[in-house]
Structure formats: structure tokens, C-alpha cells
Amino acid sequence: MTRYFTEEASVETVNERVGSEASPRLREVMTSLVSHLHAFAKETNLTQDEWDIAIDFLTRTGQICSEERQEFILLSDVLGFSMLVDAINNRRPEGATENTVFGPFHVANAPIRQMGDCISLDGKGELCRYIGKVTDLDGNPVENACIDVWSDNADSFYDVQQPDIQPKWNNRGRFFTGPDGAYQFVGIKPVSYPIPDDGPVGQMLGHMGRHPYRPAHMHFLVTADGFQKLVTHTFAGDDKYLESDAVFGVKKSLIAPFVRSDDEETVWRSDFDFVLVPVE
Ligand code: BEZ
Ligand code: FE
Known about the structure:
The chain is an alpha/beta fold. The longest helix has 21 residues, at 24-44. It is built from six helices and twelve strands. Strand 10 and strand 11 form a beta hairpin. The protein folds into two domains: 10-78, no CATH class; 93-275, Aromatic compound dioxygenase (Protocatechuate 3,4-Dioxygenase, subunit A, Sandwich), CATH 2.60.130.10. The radius of gyration is 22 Å and the shape is globular.
């Protein structure tokens, strides 16, 4: 029997149209999406003007996307959705290093460097020695782990945001552990920076009374055969944005010590060990 649309039965009306060709998973995801979307409009008594503004916002969000810019991921980030999906998909045992948001500034195939090398190529900022080891859950060293690192420079920009100003691969590099699982490199003590806020997402943050800043962090992508990929950062514990990260990436366990160093080359030293989980 055909059901015509009513406000009361809006969800059922839409969801019973899903055909038998839809896979069970698509059916599950789409019917849930419709149900929550309709509940949102009903709960807020959404006005036509508000929905028009939302459509205009989503249109502009799509229009600003390009090879270099992904405004929808940024939207997902500032709504905490990227962190939620990441959390659901990376539930880890006690003791394992936690994941956090990947972000848009990773570049694949960064130069492979020797342990102890400096990744800061522009001579700006205070140098910091990053040091630690990669282990499994029992504390055994992980050999041949790839530690791919990237950070902004002392002016708060990643190299890819300033291709005509910064040296290529500034503050990036890959390091491979030896049998002892140890790593060590020199970078800068990173600084806080705003996420790209000159588009619709930045405007939305402004309307919501939110700032666009991320607390200072060093990005790490740690991979090793037989272990789950670890996408994480370490955060400087003295940053004023730690409790208001625009993308909700901070986890307590990822706040690392940044202490005055005692070597000639660096001003700071940051010790952090990465604990990987085996693949099932
Ligand atoms: C980042 O840390 O690089 C980042 C993460 C999410 C949005 C923008 C930047
Ligand atoms: Fe970042």
C-alpha cells in the first residue's frame, strides 16, 4: 500500500522506498541517516530560511574544494566528526599509543633521513630533539618501523602552504628504526596555527564564536609490518589552545614533555615512545 508523505511518518515514508538491490550495509547506513536527519529538523523546528542558508553553505563548501583544498574534511574536523570516526575505528588496548586526526598537510614520500638529522630547513624557530622508541605492547622494540613526521614552521605555516617561500620538504622527513626500535631527529618546537579559515568553514566558526587555532603539535605517522598504522601527534604541554583545539585532536596521553635540552644543537628536547598494536 502506498504511503503518502506526512510529518509524523516522514522517516518510514522515505525509508520504505529503499529497494531490494541496496546492500544490507547501505540500507543500514542510509535509513539511519534519514532517521537522524529528520529528527534533527523536527527537534529544531528548522525554518525554510535556515535550510536555504545551509544549502548555500554546503554549495560554497563544495565550490571551494580543489586538488589542494578539501573543505568538507575541514567541516568534518571542526564538527568533531573526524575524531569520532577515528575513535570508532581505532579502539586500542590499554598502553597503546592513541590515534588522532590526520589533517590535510601530510605529503607522501618525504625524504628518508638518517637518525639524528634535522628536518628544519629554513633556519627559523627553536630547535627541538625528538627522541624515543617504537615498541610493541610488551615493550619489545619494533625494527624497521617508518616514522614519518611533519610540522608547521615557526611562522605557523606548512611548507605546502608556502611553496614559494619555504624550502621543499621543510619540517618533514621519514626515519626507519634499527633493531633497538629507537628514533631521534631534530625539528623545531612547533607553534600553534589557524586551520585554513578563509572559506565557508572559517566563516561558520566565526558565527559560532569559535577560534580556528590548533595547539602546537608534531605529526607522526608510524607504520611497521605486522602492526596497525598509527596516525598521531605529540602536543606541547604549554600551549594556550590545548583545551580548545579547533579540530578536537588533543588527547591527554599525547601531551608530551618539552624540556630545555642539554646539548649544543637544540634548545628543547621532547621524549615520547610509540606503542604499536599488532594487526589481528
Ligand atoms: C593539522 O593538524 O595539520 C590539521 C588537522 C585538521 C585540520 C587542519 C589541519
Ligand atoms: Fe598540523
